[in-house]
Amino acid sequence: MGLEDYLRERKAHKDLLVMTHVVCGYPSFEDNWAELEVMAEFGVDIVELQFPFSEPSADGPMFVRANELALKRGVTPADCFAFMKKVADHFPFKVLMMGYYNTAFKMGAETFLTRLREAGGCGYILPDLPVDEARELHSLSAQYGLDPVLLMTPTSTDRSLEKLGAAARGMIYAVARKGVTGSKTDMGDDLDQFLARCRRHTNLPIGVGFGVSTRQDIDFLRGRADMVIIGTAALRAWEEGGVEGLRSFFRDLGI
User: Fold this and answer.
1) What is the pTM of this model?
2) In what order do the strands lie in the sheet with 123-125?
3) How far is CA 195 from CA 49, 224, 253, in A?
C-alpha cells in the first residue's frame, strides 16, 4: 500500500495522525530501537529515519548535534538502510528516509531508490533538493513505488506551492514557520492562513512540523492538519528522561 492510501486509511480511524523523527545511530541504534518501541506503543503512524549528514541545513541545534555525534560514531548510509530494514519488518508504522540530497547523489538515483525500497521505506524527504532539480529522481521514484515527500513553507509563493503540489506524492510536509527545526511555533492566524494556502494546491494529506511540542499545539492542529510531525521535542524528552521520559512526553501530548 502506498503512503497516501495508508495515511487515508489511518485517518479514517483517527482525527489526527502522528509522525515522529529519529536520527539513525544517535545516541546508538539500541537507543533508537527503544525510542521506536515507545512510539509504537503510542500508535505513531509514520517515522522519519534520518540518515546523518555533515551539513543538515534544515535542522536546529539539537538535531545538528545528533547528526554530528552519529557521524563521529561512524554511522554510514549502509548502517541506516540495514536498521531501516529491521524497523520496517518489525513495527506497524510506515518508515520514511529523511536526509539530504548528497546521500542520494553520491550513490546514484537508481542505487539509492533500490536500497530504500529493499529496506522497506515508503518514500523519502530531501529538504535541500529543489523541486525543479528533482524531476529525474521523482520520475524514477514512481517506477520504484516510492513517494517524494515535499516541503511547503510560509515563504513559498503560490506559484511555488502549485509546483510542489503537482510534484509531491504520499503527503505534504507543511513547515509551520520560517527557520530551522526546534524553536517554538506560534499556533495562530498566520499558520491557519498558510495551511489554507497549502490546501488550495494539494489534495494530499498534510502534516505540520517545526515546533510542534505541546498538547495545546496538538489541539490547535486538530481539524486543520491531517498529521502532526514531532521531532525536537521528542528528542529532548529522550535525552532528559530516556524511555520513561519519552513515554511521559507522549502521554502528556494526549495522542
Assistant:
1) 0.92
2) 147-148, 123-125, 94-98, 46-50, 17-23, 227-230, 206-209, 172-175, 150-152
3) 25, 7, 22
| 48 catalytic residue (yes or no) | yes
Coil vs helix vs strand at 251: helix
Instruction: Catalytic residue, from 4, 35, 48, 217: name it.
Output: 48
pLDDT in tens, 68-101: 999 999 999 999 999 999 999 999 999 999 999 9
Q: Which of 35, 59, 147, 217 is catalytic?
A: 59
Task: Classify residue 1 as exposed, middle or buried by CB count within 10 Å of its CB (0-12, 13-18, 19+).
Answer: exposed
Sorted by where each starts, the structural domains of the chain and their CATH numbers stand as: 3-244 (3.20.20.70)
Peptide bond into 27 cis (omega under 30): yes
